[in-house]
Every structure is written in structure tokens, then in C-alpha cells.
Amino acid sequence: MSTPTNNQTSTPISTPTHIGTTEAAHYLGISTVRLRILLQQGRVKGAEKQGRNWVIPLFNGMPVIEERGKGPKATWYKRRREAETCILVNRQIIGKNAKEGQNEPPIVVKEGKNQHECHELEINGPCRIVYTPHETGPCGARLWIEAAANVPLVRKIFATFQPVSQEPKAVFEL
Prior knowledge:
The chain is an alpha+beta fold. Helices cover about 15% and strands about 25% of the residues. It folds into 2 domains: about 15-80, Multidrug-efflux Transporter Regulator, Chain: A, Domain 2; about 85-155, no CATH class. The strands form 3 sheets. A 5-stranded antiparallel beta sheet has the order 6-5-4-9-8, with no helix packed on it. A 3-stranded antiparallel beta sheet has the order 1-3-2. Strands 7-10 form a two-stranded antiparallel sheet. Helix 1 crosses helix 2 (about 30-40). The protein is globular and about 50 Å long. The termini are far apart.
């Protein structure tokens, strides 16, 4: 029997067999609301409700959704995405927002062929910041945050905006 050395670890890397709705929606590339509708229709294979939460099994690393014969073709992913996610901060939009008092989302998330904009982004897993000063990277920027394709991201967009320089509308006295 050999003992682990510095290059070996004794803990195996495990892959999950069941996931929740947020992670399953990320894997499928659809919103959590759409996934919950599919769950209520009984179209997610092997999904069970335990208390208030759904437990969704993975088959070859992906949740399986049963397709229907009528209507438009499904738009969710059938296989896991392999391309890494690139996250950029658009400096021009930040300057435009400050100058004109607008509320455009400056964070750009590129997931495969899809591109989303948001005000706040929560990265629920490992990521790294990459800077290439002499050439642009795979997402067309010199500085970006890179996350693996299987790392769930939570994007948030702020609907209302009130500049910091404005005085509060009501004064409260103690």
C-alpha cells in the first residue's frame, strides 16, 4: 500500500448525481422559471420534489427533458457546454452612465454563443482573471474574468436607478 505524496491526493473528485433547479437551468441554458414550468408539467426525467425543493437527476452529466410532438422545437442544451465563460466590464458604458446619468448594464457575460448584460454577477465556483496586454483574448478583450462552463452564474439587472448625488426625498429625524 502506498501513501500519498505531495503530487497525489487521497480524496477522489466526485461528480454530482442530482442537482437543484438553479444549477439544472444553468446546464440547460434556460431560465429557472422555464425549468419550474417543465417540472410542474412532469417533463423532467426522474425529477422529484423533496419538501419545497426539486431534486433533478443527471444522465451523462445533464438533466433530460422529454420533448413534445407539437409546437416549436426545444431550445435547451442537450449536451454540456465545453466553452469557457468570459466576463467583461465595458468601460465605455461605465463612462456613458456616469456622464449622462443612465443605467445601462456594464457587465457582459459571454457563454458560448450567447451574450448577456447585467449590473451584478455572482460567480458560484472557481474563476480567474486574465490580462493579455499585447493581444486580445478569445472574447475580444485584453482583461477578462474566465470561469469554467459548468460554473453557475447568477446575473442581476437593476430596474431603477437613482444617482448618489441626489438628496434623499424625505428627511428622517431621530
